[in-house]
Structures are given as C-alpha cells and as structure tokens.
TrEMBL record:
Residues noted as binding NADP(+) in the record, renumbered to the chain: 164-166, 234
Gene3D superfamilies (alphabetical): Leucine Dehydrogenase, chain A, domain 1 (3.40.50.10860), NAD(P)-binding Rossmann-like Domain (3.40.50.720)
The name this protein goes by in its record: Bifunctional protein FolD
HAMAP family per UniProt: THF_DHG_CYH (MF_01576)
Origin species: Chitinophaga skermanii
Gene: folD
One Gene Ontology biological process: L-histidine biosynthetic process
Family listed: Belongs to the tetrahydrofolate dehydrogenase/cyclohydrolase family.
EC number(s) stated in the UniProt entry for this protein: 1.5.1.5, 3.5.4.9
Subunit structure: Homodimer.
Tetrahydrofolate dehydrogenase/cyclohydrolase catalytic domain mapped to chain residues: 4-119
This protein's pathway: One-carbon metabolism; tetrahydrofolate interconversion
Record-level Gene Ontology MF annotations: methenyltetrahydrofolate cyclohydrolase activity; methylenetetrahydrofolate dehydrogenase (NADP+) activity
Amino acid sequence: MQILDGKLVSAAIKAELAEQVAQLKAEGKKTPHLAAILVGNNGASETYVASKVKSCAEIGFNSTLLRFDEHISEKHLLDHITSLNENADIDGILVQLPLPKHINEELVINNIDPSKDVDGFHPMNVGKMVSGLPTFIPATPYGIMLMLEHYNIETKGKHAVVIGRSHIVGTPMSILLSRNSNPGNCTVTLTHSQTKNLKELCLQADIIVAAIGKPGFVTADMVKEGAVIIDVGINRIADETKKSGFRLVGDVKFDEVAPKSSYITPVPGGVGLMTIAALLKNTYHAAIGQKGGMN
Ligand SMILES: Nc1nc2c(c(=O)[nH]1)N[C@@H](CN(C=O)c1ccc(C(=O)N[C@@H](CCC(=O)O)C(=O)O)cc1)CN2
C-alpha cells in the first residue's frame, strides 16, 4: 500500500507555479490575481479560504478577500460579483460554498464571468468540460486527476466507482475518469443515495472515489484487494483532546481499508490540499488567457 501524499504533490505543483509566476514578472507581464468571496462565519469555509489566500502569497499571486456578513442580500452580493467581473486586474473569482440559505447559489455562480470562473462551476464551463473542450475544471476533481497523474496510476480500462453525485465533485469526477485521456479511460459507475447495491458495486471497483460526506462510510468489507482509494471526505468529528475541539476524518475508514488498498489518500493531507493546488493552476491559466490545464 502506498499513501498518495497531497502535501508532497501540491507542494510540487505550487513550486512549478511559483517559477511560472516569476517568469511572468520577469517578462513584465501581469501577476495572477485571485478574488475570493466569503459569506458568513462557517469555520471550515474560513479555514479553506484562508488557506487559498495564504497559498496565493506563497507562490507570488495577488489575492483579494471580500468578507461579508451572513445577512448580506443576494442583490448586494451580485453587485460585488459584477464589479469583480468588470475589474481588469482580477483574473479569477471564487465564491466559497456553501452560501447562507437565503442566497441562491446557482444565481450567484451564473453571474460570475465564465472567463474568471476558476472554480469551473459556471454552466458554460460545465458544458465545455462535458464536451471535452478546454475550460476550467472544478478544483477537487482536477486535483484528483493531477494526483493520479503524478503517481502514474494506471486507470485505462479500470472500473471506477464514484460515491456521491454532487456538482462540485462526484459528477465532474465521473466525467473526467471516463474521458479518452490519461488518466481516464475508466468505466465509471456513479453512485448516490438511491443506489441499491452499493457494496457489490464497490467490491467490483478498481478505483473508489468516496465523496459522500459521511465519516467512515467506506469500510474494508466494501473494498477489493488492491483497489485505489480516493477519499474526498473532510468531516469534523468532536474531539475534546484536540485544541480545536475536533479532528478531521474522511469518508473512508482509513485504518481498516488502507491494508487492502494499493494506493490511498489520507485525510487530512490528501485530496483537500490538491483542491487548492488545482485552483491555483486554474487561476494561473485564467491570468495567461488559457483555460484549463488538462485538456
Ligand atoms: N467555491 C468552492 N467552495 C468549496 C469547494 C470548492 O472547490 N470551491 N470545495 C470544498 C472545500 N474546499 C475548497 O474550497 C477545500 C476543502 C479542503 C481543503 C483542505 O486543504 N483540507 C485539508 C485540511 C484543512 C483543515 O484543517 O480543515 C486537508 O485535507 O488536508 C481545502 C479546500 C467546499 N466548498
């Protein structure tokens, strides 16, 4: 069993981006600039956005964080997005999800200029991704593909079972893994809450991508010997022994599944860190006017 080390791979991607940014600066070209919008006081969202802003600074990107009270009106938020769309210095815009319930997430995403939509959530970019056209790929599935590529994991002809059909992870993941590309060329089964025979399907899987948001959902009895396990879950479990009051666990019962797997991502230190690296890659491509890094 080998650990797929998100810390190591994301550091390599960030180092490469730092060199590319230094090159842009040396040529007198524009420094990539990411704008992040954070609404409310969700602790996890604050951590993720802080990490995005910190990563920008580490590699020489500019970033702007716009923080809003959880009661901000939808109209006010849309006005801010319009002004970021019109600001020529901003290359990438992300709105951290989830948003408070009174705000229509779909409407907000649809108002981001698709050429600045570095999360790849705008329907125009989703359509391009489905059609195999160059575009921004949502950061988590993009990060997973970069991880598979880094470790040279054979995916061609393999059966991948994706657990969870969210717009930001499961659905795009199923599309990317089934593409005629490397990594890719998998036969994909996209499973969800209505799937009847999930355990049997998982037992047939060469690759499992767990993105269901349920701690420890994938257990050893669901996994074939030698399977590749990608754990997207980042669940906060109360733990009084920790200073933060919680610990992070994935959607996979790591201790019992790891010995059966050929490769496995840890939580923390796996897919989450790749999400940030992939977002930075998208932002770099937005800044140089090129969409997508894996098309
Ligand atoms: N606008 C977006 N919102 C959300 C996205 C997204 O891609 N775009 N994805 C998730 C959260 N997410 C990115 O924003 C994200 C999740 C996890 C991590 C990460 O670095 N995880 C670390 C642990 C961090 C911790 O201590 O909590 C790890 O796994 O090692 C980064 C980004 C939902 N919203």
